[in-house]
Hints:
Distance between the termini: 10 Å
Oligomer: single chain
Number of helices: 8
Shape: elongated
Helix content: 55-70%
Largest sheet: 4 strands, mixed
Amino acid sequence: MIQSMTGYGKxxxxxxxxxxxxxxxxxxxxxxxxxxxxxxxxxxxxxxVRKKLAKSLVRGKVDFSIFxxxxxxxxxxxxxxxxxxxxxxQLRNTLFIGSENDVELLKMAITxxxxxxxxxxxxxxxEWNLIDEGIDVAIKEIVQYRIDEAASLEIDFKQRIVxxxxxxxxxxxxxxxxxxxxxxxxxxxxxxxxxxxDENRFEQELIYYLEKLDINEEKVRLENHxxxxxxxxxxxxSNGKKLGFIVQEMGREINTTGSKANFAPMQKAVIQMKNExxxxxxxxxxxx
Length: 288
């Protein structure tokens, strides 16, 4: 079962003093490109979060965020009274303002550096365990999103493989006419020269020339690649890189067939195969 690298997962926790929102977004990437944003008081857990994300998501450009909104009346920020009082005295002496304007001075002082003190919040392991469960929920959600997103890709891949196989059958059906057409053109070219030829030598050269245009191996290999692609698509694990390699091999056989075709109707079928394969190539980049 394939997975897309595009996905989104979210979980929201309502804790006694805060609301915690966990978000995971992912896009396609050759490797795992992980960006983690979490509050400073959870930083010591960042490594374990990264390991968990890497194990579950494997590949892609992943943005992970934890947003905290305080909901309790209590706050870890307090007024630094001594600093504010000192600022007020300095402002009064500097601006020559009387004590009747202390309210205005207070407004100014409170904006000064160190006027407010924020106590560093210590990590609560019980709280983190709840957040860790929330991360698991968000991961489960994004994985399901990736699976759902890939379902339509899988249908499209299978249909395009069917189309390529159909055009391959057209190529096979045209092969006999192609060979006959090549023989006729060569014979006509000889006849137009109006020279005597050794029939045995001509047959030998013709066989040699036709061997260079033979596409039997390409047809067999392309058929095998089509089957292998579908087999890999049906495996339990998503392996976009492997599917990409198979697609490259399919392209190699199709291109070689096109270069050897030397017959307009067959080249049209090859162009159709190339078109279908390009659509697969474009979408395979988003498969995990």
